[in-house]
Amino acid sequence: MHLVRSISALSSRPRDPRVVTIGAFDGLHLGHQEIFRQAMTISGERGGSIAALSFEPTPAEFFAHDEPPARLTCFRERLEKLDAIGVDELICPPFSQVNALEHGRFVEQVLVKGLNVGHIVVGHDFRYGTGRQGDIETLRQAGIARGFDLTIVEPVYFEGQRISSTRIRHALSHGNLDTAGEMLGRDYSMSGRVVHGIGLGRDIGFPTANVNLKRRKAPVDGIFAVQVDGLGSQSLDGVASIGSRPTVGGGKTLLEVFIFDFDASVYGAYITVRFRARLRSEENFATIEAMQEQIHIDVQAAKAALAQ
Question: Which residues contact 89 (CB under 8 A, 6 or more apart)?
Fold first, then answer.
């Protein structure tokens, strides 16, 4: 999949008409997947590559400033998931570039001149341009004037309510992993590169793979039964903590994974941690020994949860 990170770079790309989807696509849930399914059908019928126009940071993060919503997928995770479903190009400029464009200029500069759009596929509530002034009707009229087609994708529902990234964040924040998984179409997971920690886990008999989250706010916290991919041909079982580690002085939120029956150096490895069951909230223990005792309990609880 080809990646373009600025609007100005679009002029150097091939000029064949594209099937374009537009959105933040945080989580790439079943509603997003339906958008891409329809885009692929259109691409197969009329030809043309599939381009996903997305943004970094997401619009919700851009406008939230100091209180951003939890991010379901970091940039690399979003890229990997789009690549896996068959998207040809990810156009992901800084959102500030796009937000500065009045909706008519967005159509002309980005969609027509930059992407040579032949067909646009968007969700039913799509808005665009400065102040979100552009909507489905202005986009439809622009298509008539500029010669591109428009497909509006209706919402996908779960248990009578529309699937959305916001709803998935709510489920995850309440530990409802099964509900979140139903809306995502897969286990919720986080990926990242294993980095060096302070070494305490190994000292107390529970060496952990520590993963930087690459997001300002995580959608989950606490202790979880997990499965780890990326360290061999099969998934590995484990128990994970995601939080600020108050017992050892706190700090930025970190994902720490203790993998059962595993004793290899994995520093620098890129792994995916799939969250299978939430066991408890993070705690601040009075002593390291008390924390160590609780980890023993967590390991057994995680093994029992995974066995089910």
Answer: 1, 2, 3, 4, 13, 18, 49, 50, 51, 52
Dist CA 117 CA 135 (whole Å): 17
Q: Burial, 54: exposed, middle or buried (Cβ in 10 Å; 0-12, 13-18, 19+)? A: buried
Cα angle: 88, vertex 231, 73; to 5 degrees: 45
* Distance between CA atoms of residues 137 and 127, nearest Å: 10
CATH number at residue 157: 3.40.50.620
The mean pLDDT of 95-115, rounded to a whole number, is: 94
How many domains are contained in the chain? 2
Do 197 and 64 share a structural domain? Answer: no
- Looking only at Cα atoms, what is the longest distance across the chain? 71
pTM, full prediction = 0.93
| Residue 50 forms part of a structural domain | yes
Query: Where in the sequence is the domain holding 289, given as residue range(s)?
Result: 188-307
Q: How confident is the model at residue 65 (pLDDT cuts 50, 70, 90)?
A: confident
Please, is 251 exposed, middle or buried when counting C-beta atoms within 10 Å of its C-beta (0-12, 13-18, 19+)? Answer: exposed
29 shares its domain with 148: yes
Whether 104 and 35 map to the same domain: the answer is yes
